[in-house]
Amino acid sequence: MTDPTPLDKAEAAVAKAERNTDVLQVAMAALELAKMAQAQQPAAPSACEHQHKKGRSAGEWLGIACAVCVGGVGIAFASLALAILGGVAAIVVLVLRDMWRDMQKGR
Q: Mind telling me which residue stretches traverse the membrane in this protein (predicted)?
């Protein structure tokens, strides 16, 4: 085979440049698509949108504990009062029943 002439070399270089230009155009189009896709993605929020409640302080917890204790003691005293009232009511009923029997026998 013969050595390529300068004209053949130039034609090969032009063809190679044309192919490279096509590849370069495809790559640039892909880059543009990637940029557009990235621009359309919503940015992740950097902070929460809702308001966080502040935690209870030690004083508030102490107040809640005292209220629970006072309520528990109050319920205990109420239960004790109901028990005494029930006992008294039972005694009154027994005494009244005994009095009723005595009155029925006396006739």
A: 62-95
